[in-house]
Design goal:
GO terms for molecular function: transmembrane transporter activity. The protein has 219 residues and is mostly helical. It contains eight helices and no strands. The chain has helices at 8-44, 49-64, 67-81, 88-113, 117-125, 130-160, 172-183, 187-213. The mean pLDDT is 90.
Length: 219
């Protein structure tokens, strides 16, 4: 068996192109799942069981099953149920958003629960409305509490984009595995690892900067 030399320049060019797909998945997931996760947190904390119980079940399902299976479900299940389906990239985004909203919902719920009840009572005495109390007093503290866990989820999301290849969405890992098979080499996988590491290093730096900026807010 002859092992061909891996054309690094072509490999890097293809991975840079595939990085565009990774970034699209990343930013669309963040843009949609964070607001949805916030609603999930509020629904989970509702005193009405008709709202909180279905929310808990939703979180259990999407946090308790592999994202890979969820990608397959949203890609193929609609064809069997409705005789129509989603385009591959659309199915990918739906699966990622619903999955990550379940995780963000739990993170935000924990952040809200960490705020002492006395702060709500103090705000009421000072004449703040419920909306003013939440937006001006509670929310800034919640943001500080959830920054570390949120940063961790961002970094996990970068790595999870590699799962998109199971429904044939062309991203970095797909390019690397195809090149590895073609040239009988692990070099493409190493190069892919460098791409993921660089992206997560940037995220780590950004969140450390945010944490530093929020240090003034003592709780």
């Amino acid at each position: 068996m002859v092992i061909d030399k891996v054309p690094i320049d072509l490999l890097v060019k293809n991975m840079i192109f595939a990085t565009g797909t990774v970034l699209k998945i990343f930013f669309l997931t963040i843009l949609l799942s964070i607001p949805l996760g916030f609603l999930v947190a509020l629904a989970r904390g509702s005193r009405y069981k008709i709202i909180s119980v279905p929310t808990r079940i939703y979180q259990l399902i999407f946090r308790g099953t592999p994202l890979m299976l969820q990608l397959f479900f949203f890609m193929y299940a609609p064809y069997y149920i409705f005789d129509t389906g989603f385009e591959r990239f659309t199915a990918c985004i739906i699966a990622f958003v619903i999955n990550y909203a379940a995780y963000f919902g739990e993170i935000f719920r924990g952040g809200i629960a960490a705020i002492p009840k006395g702060q709500y009572e103090a705000a009421k005495v000072l004449g703040y409305s419920k909306l003013q109390t939440f937006t001006r007093i509670i929310l800034p503290q919640v943001i500080k509490h959830v920054i570390p866990a949120t940063g961790n989820e961002f970094m996990t999301l970068v790595k999870d984009t590699s799962l998109a290849q199971v429904i044939s969405v062309k991203e970095i890992y797909d390019v690397a595995s195809n090149a590895g098979s073609r040239y009988f080499s692990t070099i493409p996988l190493v190069v892919a690892g460098v791409f993921y590491l660089v992206m997560n290093t940037v995220i780590e730096f950004i969140f450390k900067y945010i944490e530093k900026k929020l240090n003034y807010y003592k709780t």
